[in-house]
Design a protein that fits this description.
single chain, alpha+beta, 31% strand, 3-stranded antiparallel β-sheet, 2 helices, 97 residues
Length: 97
């Protein structure tokens, strides 16, 4: 069995290759795609995917989305202190959660 991970800029997905066939693996909500979004409270509580997007309207200061397209580039202005109160970068959000 092989496992493939697609860390897309908008959504991420995981699939397994077994018996000559690829099968997508659902996330904890039963969805095959997980939104590329992270929301982090000051306490450290983190939400990913749809749960993070749901928080975007009310807690934009705690939520990051559309950050994967910036991976491999220097962290843009405005990312310092974003969601965590400390300097972060697009790679940090992807690797941490």
């Amino acid at each position: 069995m092989l496992i493939g991970i697609d860390l897309g800029t908008t959504n991420s997905a995981v699939a397994i290759w077994r018996d000559g066939e690829a099968t997508l693996v659902p996330n904890a909500l039963g969805e095959l795609l997980t939104s590329s979004a992270v929301s982090i409270e000051k306490s450290g509580q983190a939400w990913i995917g749809r749960s993070a997007l749901d928080r975007l309207a009310n807690q934009p200061q705690d939520t990051a989305s559309s950050f994967k397209r910036l991976m491999g580039t220097p962290a843009p202005r405005g990312w310092a202190g974003r969601t965590t109160g400390r300097r972060t970068c697009p790679r940090w959000y992807s690797a941490r959660w």
